[in-house]
Write a structure and sequence with these properties.
about 0% helix; single chain
């Protein structure tokens, strides 16, 4: 379980942040905290109480070794918050498995090991894990239909073996949080007699009933990308369709109406990256392969009242790539991380890339510039942290002896600097290498990593772990 959060902690720095609180309200107190040591919280919405554990007095020789933050809460003008404010301290710069609240001292494991699944942060701070696959004793993939709800703060896991008529076995699908708090599960594939069969099915998981309401898409697609615009509409782009052919065009989805709608634009892509940009006014489709060549163009789609309409931005990647990761990066910039520099399947010609690119959306024409360098790999996860930082973990790298792609446990963090390229800091690696995993930023500033596939030692092993990493604060 690692060191307890208060191990070697002698002092606490308590901070209150929120709307209109500049600078943060801070108070230093001994570790044996008393109620009167907690600073007064001004009335207003979005208040956050943070605690940092130090080995000695903060601002002198003390080193921060643990951090915890509450969920945002509203402080009324009179009385206290509507619910108790909870702060969970976590050790910094170390991978810690979640402890099972019902079995103190034991680790919390996924009920079913899974890879190729999705993990979606819900509005109440819980995380919905959906689908994926595991490997049987003969090495064959078994597609999962189950859902699991992980509560990182409460340290509990709820297993949902079936979620109503809209649930389906699916892996390599997309999951998108809807404005109403549900989760849109779209497409994916199921393994049948060793053959991957793309799915036309989609559904919206309801957090109240914990069931999925299903509907059909126009196109069967798997291994695609998805992003939601500011109006709550989702664009599905790229992917593999029936008979292994690339899906020829995107499709829009209205999750509230439980229906898809046509997007008549030729866009066969595999390994393209999809993200909302410009505060959700547009959805960008970046890179990918058209089956024969890598596509450098950066294309955006905007909703015109009836469907998503493509817009040529004129922007092009400096290094065309597929299977890259995207993360918001310091303002209206988007960081494009890693991927593969060949249009073929990575297993045929991996060519993992070490460089990244930055797309600046603040101008009328997006500007593409060189980004920081990473250890070469593709299929990484990249997630935005506070203060413009980006967390990058796992993926696949080329083995120096065999040149084959193998899973990686490397972890890096991008720190914005005065220069355009910024700085990349190596972080403690994952104990088990993995790709096809998930990374989820949590409200307290930590990152949750679940599942994934480890083939670094030969035979594939599907992970069942749920790990937490808390970066060191930079403010």
């Amino acid at each position: 379980m690692g060191l307890p959060p208060l191990e070697n902690v002698t002092w606490l720095l308590l901070r209150v942040t929120g709307e209109g609180i500049h600078p943060p309200i801070e108070r230093v107190a001994p570790v044996d905290l008393r109620p009167e040591d907690v600073p007064a919280v001004p009335p207003g919405p979005g208040r956050v109480l943070e605690a940092r554990g130090y080995t000695d007095e903060p601002f002198f020789s003390g080193q921060v070794v643990s951090v915890g933050r509450s969920a945002p809460f509203e402080m009324p003008a009179e009385g206290g918050p509507a619910e108790p404010v909870r702060v969970v301290l976590r050790r910094v710069e170390t991978w810690v498995p979640l402890e099972d609240a019902q079995r103190p001292g034991e680790c919390l494991h996924l009920t079913e090991p899974r890879a190729g699944h999705t993990a979606t942060l819900l509005k109440d701070g819980r995380v919905l894990l959906a689908g994926g696959f595991q490997v049987d004793g003969s090495g064959n993939a078994e597609t999962l239909a189950s859902l699991e709800i992980l509560d990182p703060g409460g340290r509990t896991l709820s297993f949902l073996p079936g979620a109503g008529g809209g649930a389906a076995r699916r892996a390599f699908h997309t999951a998108t949080l809807t404005p109403g708090g549900g989760v849109l599960l779209a497409g994916g594939e199921v393994s049948q007699a060793g053959v991957a069969v793309p799915l036309r099915s989609a559904g919206v998981w309801d957090p109240v009933t914990e069931e999925v309401q299903g509907f059909e898409l126009a196109w069967a697609r798997s291994r695609h990308g998805a992003a939601m615009d500011s109006g709550g509409r989702v664009l599905l782009a790229g992917g593999v369709g029936e008979a292994g052919a690339l899906v020829p065009e995107p499709e829009g989805v209205d999750p509230q109406a439980l229906r898809g709608f046509s997007v008549p634009q030729a866009l066969p892509r595999l390994g393209a990256s999809v993200s909302a940009v410009q505060e959700g006014q547009r959805v960008a489709v970046i890179g990918g392969s058209d089956g024969t060549a890598l596509v450098p163009e950066v294309l955006t789609f905007a909703f015109d009242g009836a469907t998503f309409v493509p817009e040529a931005t004129g922007a092009r990647l400096r290094q065309p790539r597929r299977n890259a990761a995207l993360a918001p990066f310091a303002g209206q910039r988007l960081l494009v991380v890693g991927g593969y520099g060949s249009p073929e399947a990575p297993e045929i010609n991996g060519n993992a890339l070490p460089m990244s690119e930055v797309i600046d959306w603040s101008a009328a024409v997006p500007r593409v510039s060189e980004g920081p360098s990473f250890v070469a790999r593709g299929d990484v996860c990249a997630e935005a942290l506070s203060a413009g930082r980006v967390f990058v973990a796992g993926g696949r790298r080329q083995d120096p002896a065999s040149f084959k792609l193998v899973s990686s446990g490397l972890v890096e963090q991008v720190i914005p600097t005065a220069s355009e390229t910024s700085a990349v800091l190596g972080q403690p690696p994952l104990a088990s290498a993995r790709y096809l995993h998930t990374c989820t930023p949590l409200p307290d500033g930590s990152v949750l990593v679940t599942g994934g596939l480890d083939d670094s030692l030969g035979s594939p092993v599907i992970q069942e772990s749920a790990l937490i990493y808390m970066p060191v604060p930079r403010d």
